Amino acid sequence: MAASDSKDSDMALTILAEQQDGLLILTLNRPDKRNALNTQMYQALTQALQQASQNEAVHVVLLQGQTECFTAGNDLADFMGKTSLEADDPILQFLHTLADFPKPVIAAVAGPAVGIGTTLLLHCDLVYLADNARLQLPFVELGLVPEFASSLLLPRAVGHLKAAELLLLAEAMDAAEALRLGLANRVLAVDELLGFAREQGLKLAAKPPKALQKSKALLKQELRQAVHFVIDIEARAFSQALQGEEAQTRIAHKLGRRG
């Protein structure tokens, strides 16, 4: 349930997996790149979720980063090599796998949660933020468009006007604002976040697993087909934008600033 990132010189495991009493903890582990998600990490996350969905010993999944950073979003250098997002692309496979995952998913978010780091929270069942968390949806800023069915789910969660503000202006929001908008269950001190999320995960994992899964399915059933449909629509629009001059220029400029 872990992947080796061939682009990192030390070949460190970029997704760590730990299982405890029915709880599977998946940790993004590329802190030197602010946990920016690349192809190998998407493949590892998809594999871990697919295995967990079939493993009766796993009742709940907890997704986390470190106390300094959840994820800076997609690895832009890795992204620049893509010409399109086809159905077999590791990114799309991850999106559909998480959207369809049958067991409860908890997210523990500290520090930056950029792009996919925020949109994936819309597919989690419980979300806990550290007081240093900052969520941002910078797609338009990069010449891109929303992804992971955020154009469907975000307006339903926070209303059209607020969703438009978050997606079009692309300004970051802090943990208190995310909590106020209903995008999180609780905000905790940084040093309390991961321990609290684990405790909640173990508490959830101790409940009857079939009842948990059926209850989640009922909560998700209204939008299930729509979510997958919109994921694919957004992916096509994203692919077109990614090949466009605006995105190419903006992303190249951002990579240039990073050296």
Question: Could you write a compact summary of the structure shown?
Answer:
The chain is 46% helix and 15% strand.
Mean model confidence by pLDDT:
93
CATH superfamily: 2-enoyl-CoA Hydratase, Chain A, domain 1
Named CATH architecture: Alpha-Beta Complex
Low-confidence spans: pLDDT under 50, at least 5 residues? 1-11
| CATH top level class name | Alpha Beta
- Strand arrangement within the widest β-sheet reads 1-2-3-4-6-9
The count of DSSP E runs of length 2 or more, i.e. the number of strands, is 9
CATH topology category name: 2-enoyl-CoA Hydratase, Chain A, domain 1
Helix content: 40-55%
Largest sheet: 6 strands, mixed
Distance between the termini: 32 Å
Tally of distinct domains: 1
Shape: globular
Report strand %: 5-15%
